[in-house]
From TrEMBL:
Belongs to the UPF0126 family. The keyword Cell membrane applies. GO terms for cellular component: plasma membrane. Keywords: Cell membrane, Membrane, Transmembrane, Transmembrane helix. This is Uncharacterized membrane protein YeiH. It holds the Pfam family Gly_transporter.
Length: 213
């Protein structure tokens, strides 16, 4: 039987979830701004980047209402972030902001992967499906963001491991649960493994093989 979660783990999960949502929303705003979209376009791309993966997960798992409908504070927060960013951020801010986002983006990938695995396991899904739900939650928001910006999704084209990091972290989560580890330990392990692998991939410039012409 899983041990009860301690309060600080619940707080940590909430803080990381908010930070990850903000990181992905910012990535959507920067991508939209570079395409010179108007205010509506910027908000739409930001919402899709932040909520797209979780929405697809809930759709595939037949969960209603969607997670952002249940927690409307996220919607108001992203809307306020969009307005504030459009008022104060200019073209010269894009590059340093993008570099600074690499670490929170990696952490966000790990957290969203863990949330996806948790949601699927809570519904009694098989391990492979749970891992795939974690991968979709962590990756698909960025894929939709790039599609809306008329780009080949970065997760598929920059050749540095991204989805594979979430896939590996999801399996760590599942294996720990099979050994009766506490849920909070499995959650943190998924976050650390996924974010750590992504960080190593960026630092060491690991490359996946491209299709040979």
């Amino acid at each position: 039987m899983d041990l009860p979660e301690t309060p600080w783990i619940h707080t940590l999960r909430f803080v990381l979830e908010v930070a990850a949502t903000v990181a992905f929303a910012l990535s959507g705003m920067i991508a939209a701004a570079r395409q010179r979209m108007d205010a509506v376009g910027v908000c739409v791309v930001a919402f899709v980047a932040a909520f797209g993966g979780g929405t697809l997960r809930d759709l595939l798992l037949d969960q209603r209402p969607f997670f952002w409908v249940r927690h409307t504070g996220y919607v108001w927060g992203i809307l306020a972030l969009c307005v504030g960013t459009m008022l104060f951020m200019r073209q010269r801010h894009f590059q340093p902001t993008e570099r600074a986002m690499l670490l929170p983006d990696a952490i966000g990938l790990g957290l969203f992967a863990a949330i996806g695995v948790d949601a699927a396991m809570a519904l009694g899904m098989p391990p492979l499906i749970a891992v795939m739900m974690g991968l979709i939650t962590g990756v698909f928001g960025g894929v939709l963001r790039d599609v809306l910006c008329n780009k080949v999704p970065q997760a598929f084209s920059d050749h540095r491991p991204y989805a594979l990091c979430a896939f590996a972290g999801g399996w760590v989560d599942v294996v720990l649960r099979q050994f009766q580890a506490p849920e909070w330990a499995a959650l943190l392990a998924c976050v650390l493994v996924t974010a750590g692998l992504r960080g190593l991939a960026l630092w060491r410039n690991w490359q996946l093989p491209a299709w040979r012409v």
